[in-house]
Design a protein that fits this description.
The protein is of the alpha/beta class. The protein has one domain: Rossmann fold (3-Layer(aba) Sandwich), CATH 3.40.50. The chain has ten helices and eight strands. The chain has helices at 14-31, 35-50, 65-73, 86-93, 112-117, 135-148, 167-173, 176-194, 200-212, 222-231, and strands at 4-5, 55-59, 78-83, 101-105, 121-127, 149-160, 236-243, 246-252. Bound molecules: S-adenosylmethionine.
Length: 253
């Protein structure tokens, strides 16, 4: 990936980066059942909103796997990935790919990220990141995202959104054993990367980052997110994807 880094940062051996990004994608697929269908739905929604998007941002995009896929799908687009994790940002920056993705280091729990990212985005996506934040931070983030989007722009937000009314059906579709296996795979992935000499210092930096802001493990039903998006000024909000406890909402400015 020919990275245009928003801030200087570590660059890794591309062969290592390619390997760890590939296994990261497998770990995330364990967390999000039907992840490939989610990504296809997101891309189609983005194209339906104004095909093809010119400026795209993935918030909490980790090592930039989805960002790279979007850059390949929309070669003329300017695609950026934002995250706070030094390990994942280094992997995004060092990806062995010719797809141009800009990496931006920022903290989504503060509005300062908007200044770093810029504005006039046609599409902003965020996948499995909101649950790191507290409810009030998610509400504030929705208002920040709205400011960063161009008129007519689209937000797609995907995360755990368990709806009480159909809890038993969702449990059947997305059994807890799957979540436990995904947790184990996540822990193993982080243990494995910590053994790589050039990544180990970044793992220590990461521990300091998340030591100050442990994941909030915030989850709320679709109705909460729809109301929060409405309160943030989004005009049209709708459910575009669901698989088990996971869901994605699209919101238009
Ligand atoms: C479960 S991972 C999902 C990553 C990516 N969206 C994916 O699907 O592969 C959650 C991501 O949110 C990022 N994140 C958590 N809290 C954050 C914050 N306060 N600011 C920016 N990124 C954050 C993490 O570093 C991580 O990359």
């Amino acid at each position: 990936m020919a990275s245009m880094s928003g801030a200087p940062g570590a660059v890794l051996d591309p062969a290592h980066a390619g390997r760890w990004r590939a296994t990261w994608a497998q770990v995330m697929a364990g967390f999000v059942p039907g992840l490939s269908t989610l990504e296809e739905t997101m891309c189609r929604a983005a194209e339906a909103a104004g095909s093809p998007p010119g400026k795209v941002l993935d918030l909490g995009g980790g090592p930039g796997v989805l960002a790279e896929r979007m850059a390949r799908r929309w070669p003329a687009a300017e695609v950026s990935v934002m995250d706070i994790d030094p390990v994942l940002l280094a992997l995004a920056r060092s990806a062995p790919s010719d797809a141009a993705v800009r990496t931006i280091e920022a903290d989504l729990s503060s509005s300062a990220w908007v200044g770093r990212a810029g504005a006039d985005f046609d599409v902003i996506v965020t996948v499995m990141t909101l649950h790191y934040l507290h409810a009030a931070q998610v509400q504030a983030l929705y208002a920040d995202i709205r400011r960063a989007l161009t008129p007519g722009g689209l937000l797609i937000v995907a995360d755990l959104m368990p709806d009480d009314g159909i809890a038993s059906l969702m449990a059947a579709l997305d059994p807890a054993e799957g979540a436990a296996a995904a947790d184990l795979a996540w822990a193993q992935w982080w243990s494995d990367v910590a053994d790589i000499a050039e990544i180990a210092p970044l793992v220590a930096e990461r521990a300091a980052v998340f030591g100050q802001r442990p994941p909030a493990e915030f989850t709320a039903p679709v109705s909460w997110h729809a109301a929060a998006l409405g309160a943030a000024g989004f005009e049209r909000v709708g459910l575009v994807w669901r698989c088990g406890r996971h869901a994605a909402l699209a919101a238009l400015v």
